[in-house]
Amino acid sequence: MSDHGFIWRFISGFFRFFSIFLFFVIVPLDSLSSTESEMMYLDSLAKRLVKDGFDEKQIQELFRRPEVRFDTRGVSMFSVHQEAKLNYGQFLSDSNIQKARQYMEQHLSSLQAAERVYGVEKEVITAIMLVETRLGTYLGGSSILNSLSTMAALSDPESREFIWNKMSKTSDHTRSQFNSWSDRKTDWAYNELKAFITYTQQEAVDPLSISGSYAGALGICQFMPSNVLKIARDGNLDGRINLFDHADAIASIANYLKVHGWRPGLDRDKQYQVLLRYNYSKPYADTLIDIAQRLKG
Length: 297
Fold this sequence. Notes:
Distance between the termini: 65 Å
Helix content: 55-70%
Number of strands: 2
Structural class: mainly alpha
Shape: globular
Strand content: under 5%
CATH class of the domain at 88-140 and 214-296: Mainly Alpha
Low-confidence stretches: 1-33
Radius of gyration: 22 Å
CATH architecture of the domain at 88-140 and 214-296: Orthogonal Bundle
């Protein structure tokens, strides 16, 4: 790095620090309402997005909408989520297998098309649909934008403190556990936030109209936004990617598995390894294979 570059970075860093210091001297944080504090931290996140290339007017308008806020409840749930404790056995009940068979009949043409194009059996695709969203009947109620924005903001120490103070009233985490989790998730969430905004801009969809899981997954197939951009497919050939449409979700699951190594005729062990890429949980992968075998029987 040149001396000039070092000096410029030093000056920029100094003025950024000084502006933050001056704000807190003139306007003490504890004198602000919770909503005002939240808006300040969201504005900081919006400026980061603009710096990374997003249109300033669009981002400022989006993050100043009253619906945009920190989803501390959802993030708290995500932070204590434990795959090993989930009851995957419920999906092998006779009633759920029957619902899955009915789903296969209802969407047979889309499932057959995906099997033909991507080489993924319709039973496997249906198994994923069943476990992820109960065949599209349970899509999650969290705002994707708010969930990802909350986790992305954890990279900023002041924002993290604010979010922890709200989360600590309901979270089972200790502060050290929360910090460790935040360190692991915040950069990942910021990249997913960028992917989500990019996707909604490409499809001309209001970001605040999309709900999903508290982890930021969306649609019937529960894709993270980065996978929507890279792997999702237009199954109904209408020129759009809409993972709340069954045909698009079916094609997207099939393409995801193909991209990660699925081929016709894989033995159970190789199927298991590919399915772990969809959700890294051993009980999850085992359950999908068992469901698919039941559907073939």
